[in-house]
Amino acid sequence: MLGLFSRLQGEKYDGRKADAWSCGVILFALLVGALPFDDDNLRNLLEKVKLGVFHMPHFIPPDCQNLLRGMIEVDATKRFTLEQIQKHTWYITAILTFAAVILAAYNAMQSKVPPSKKCNYWNVHIRAQPERSCQVEPVSVLQEK
Hints:
Mean pLDDT: 75
Helix content: 40-55%
Number of domains: 2
Shape: elongated
Radius of gyration: 20 Å
Number of strands: 2
CATH superfamily of the largest domain: Transferase(Phosphotransferase) domain 1
Strand content: 5-15%
Structural class: alpha+beta
CATH topology of the largest domain: Transferase(Phosphotransferase), domain 1
């Protein structure tokens, strides 16, 4: 996938710009369970890729839609850079949420929960300020009885 988009557009290959586009396609696939561009006819598929024509499912949150559209932008000069992606609200929130879940899981494993009882859910409370720092506080660990 790397470089495909640039070659289709007749542009000189720029790895960083192509990587941002490719990561957008991969993120879309992870969130939606399908690729953004699809067609049974290869010529039509390539045309959709060149034009950037894809359907954004309604269940994708607006801030994530903004990130995906910025990453899968056809015009390389308008496409989000890797730095812009890393500063995007949805990206920061996703990273903090993932870190909170990992921290809650680690704390649950370190607690004195008997091995016979499984921890099946972590209720995690996050207070984040993207430009500063974040505090992650596991609120509770529910256990199977």
